[in-house]
């Protein structure tokens, strides 16, 4: 998607670089399935003099020039990995990008639904409705995990393309919805892989 001073030039395109304009390219998918990540990339042949702020799901993500993926004086390439929530009911989610105080891009990412597996399990009752002490500990751990996962690092700490952390098989799929003794539970927001 090529941009000139503050507005989209070709909003229908998935990517582009219009040399007659500001030589800026922003790429992202037009639609993303619930629960899936996507890559947002900003690229220009010019040396950009300010970082970007991406607004997504009510949060502001700062893409500073320290994350520039190109050598000095070769241009600017910034990227972010965003995701659509697994349990969202939204049909579309707004995306905004600002450079300093200037709004340079807006879009709506369409949300599609996909089928995730359902797993029926029969277990001892204590694993379905834990005792108060275990339930309290689980709530405390969940709260701590949410606090960790909602943090946004100002410096990119991963490289793309992403790689599997281990080579073992998947033992529990991402997005699977489990029912214990017929009682449905929330979907898994992670995947389990065998270490070897």
The rounded distance between the terminal residues' Cα atoms is 42 Å
N to C succession of SSEs: EEEEEEEEEEEHHEEEE
Question: How many helical stretches?
Answer: 2
Instruction: List unreliable stretches of 5+ residues.
Output: 1-21
Helicity, as a percent range: 10-25%
- How large a portion of the residues is in β-strands, by DSSP E? 35-45%
Principal-axis shape: elongated
The SS-based structural class is mainly beta
- Summed over residues and divided by their number, the pLDDT gives a mean of 80
Number of strands: 15
Strand count, sense and closure of the main sheet? 5 strands, antiparallel
For the CA atoms, what is the radius of gyration? 21 Å
Query: What is the spatial order of strands in the main beta sheet?
Result: 2-1-3-5-8
Report what the structure shows.
This protein is mainly beta and 196 residues long. 11% of the residues lie in helices and 38% in strands. The protein has two helices and 15 strands. The strands form four sheets. Strands 2-1-3-5-8 form a five-stranded antiparallel sheet, with no helix packed on it. The chain has a five-stranded mixed sheet with strand order 4-10-9-6-7, with no helix packed on it. A hairpin with a 2-residue loop joins strand 9 and strand 10 (102-112). The protein is elongated, with a radius of gyration of 21 Å. The model is unreliable at 1-21 (pLDDT under 50).
């Amino acid at each position: 998607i090529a941009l000139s001073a503050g507005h989209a030039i070709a909003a229908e395109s998935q990517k582009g670089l219009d040399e007659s304009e500001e030589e800026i390219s922003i790429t992202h998918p037009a639609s993303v399935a619930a629960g899936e990540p996507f890559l947002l990339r900003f690229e220009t042949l010019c040396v950009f003099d300010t970082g970007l702020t991406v607004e997504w799901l009510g949060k502001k993500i700062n893409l500073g020039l320290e994350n520039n993926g190109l050598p000095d004086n070769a241009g600017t390439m910034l990227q972010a990995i965003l995701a659509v929530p697994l349990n969202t009911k939204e049909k579309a989610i707004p995306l905004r990008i600002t450079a300093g105080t200037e709004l340079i891009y807006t879009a709506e990412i369409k949300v599609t639904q996909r089928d995730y597996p359902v797993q029926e399990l029969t277990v001892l009752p204590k694993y379905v409705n834990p005792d108060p002490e275990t339930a309290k500990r689980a709530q405390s751990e969940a709260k701590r995990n949410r606090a960790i996962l909602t943090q946004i690092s100002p410096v990119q700490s991963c490289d793309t393309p992403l790689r599997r952390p281990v080579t073992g098989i998947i033992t529990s799929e991402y997005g699977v919805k489990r029912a214990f003794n017929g009682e449905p539970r929330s979907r898994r927001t992670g995947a389990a892989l065998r270490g070897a």
